[in-house]
C-alpha cells in the first residue's frame, strides 16, 4: 500500500515539474511559442495527410522532435545564463550547438513532410 502511494506521488510530482517546464518555456522562449503554434496546425494535418500508421508516426514524430529539441536547447541556454551572463567562447559554442540541433530537427520535419507529400 505505501509503495503504491509513493509511486503515485512521484508520478504526480514528475508531471507537475514537466508542466512547469513546458509553461516556463512557452512563457520565456518565443521560438518555442512559434513551434507550438505550428504544431497545433501540423499535428491535426498529419492525420489528414498520412496514408498509414507509419506515415502518421513519422509526420507527428518529426514535429514533436522539434519541440523536444527546443526544450533541451532552452534548458542548456538557461543553465549557461545561470552560470554567467558574461560572454565566454564555450558558452557561445554551447548555445550555438543547441541552436544547430533545433535546425537539424526542423530540417528533419521538412524532409519528412516533403517525402510523404510528394511520394
UniProtKB/TrEMBL annotation:
Keyword Lipid metabolism: yes
Cell compartment(s), UniProt: Cell inner membrane
Biological process (GO), any one: phosphatidic acid biosynthetic process
Binding site for substrate: 10, 14-19, 31-35, 70, 99
Co-factor requirement: Mg(2+)
UniProt-annotated catalytic positions: 70
Residues noted as binding ATP in the record, renumbered to the chain: 10, 29, 77, 86-88, 95-96
MF terms in GO: ATP binding; ATP-dependent diacylglycerol kinase activity; metal ion binding
Keywords carried by this UniProt record: ATP-binding, Cell inner membrane, Cell membrane, Kinase, Lipid biosynthesis, Lipid metabolism, Magnesium, Membrane, Metal-binding, Nucleotide-binding, Phospholipid biosynthesis, Phospholipid metabolism, Transferase, Transmembrane, Transmembrane helix
Assigned EC number: 2.7.1.107
Topological type in the membrane: Multi-pass membrane protein
Function as written in the Swiss-Prot or TrEMBL entry: Catalyzes the ATP-dependent phosphorylation of sn-l,2-diacylglycerol (DAG) to phosphatidic acid. Involved in the recycling of diacylglycerol produced as a by-product during membrane-derived oligosaccharide (MDO) biosynthesis.
Sequence intervals crossing the membrane: 32-50, 56-76, 97-118
Cofactor binding annotation: Mn(2+), Zn(2+), Cd(2+) and Co(2+) support activity to lesser extents.
Binding locations of a divalent metal cation: 29, 77
Catalytic activity: a 1,2-diacyl-sn-glycerol + ATP = a 1,2-diacyl-sn-glycero-3-phosphate + ADP + H(+)
InterPro entries for the chain: DAGK, DAGK_prok, DAGK_sf
Organism, as annotated: Porticoccus litoralis
Name this polypeptide is given: Diacylglycerol kinase
Protein family membership: Belongs to the bacterial diacylglycerol kinase family.
Amino acid at each position: 500500500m505505501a509503495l503504491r502511494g509513493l509511486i503515485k506521488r512521484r508520478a504526480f510530482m514528475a508531471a507537475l515539474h514537466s508542466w512547469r517546464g513546458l509553461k516556463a518555456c512557452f512563457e520565456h522562449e518565443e521560438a518555442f511559442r512559434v513551434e507550438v503554434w505550428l504544431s497545433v496546425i501540423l499535428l491535426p494535418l498529419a492525420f489528414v495527410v498520412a496514408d498509414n500508421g507509419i506515415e502518421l508516426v513519422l509526420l507527428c514524430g518529426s514535429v514533436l522532435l522539434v519541440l523536444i529539441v527546443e526544450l533541451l536547447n532552452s534548458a542548456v541556454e538557461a543553465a549557461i545564463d545561470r552560470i554567467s551572463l558574461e560572454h565566454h567562447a564555450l558558452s557561445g559554442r554551447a548555445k550555438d550547438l543547441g541552436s544547430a540541433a533545433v535546425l537539424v530537427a526542423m530540417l528533419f520535419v521538412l524532409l519528412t513532410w516533403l517525402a510523404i507529400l510528394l511520394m
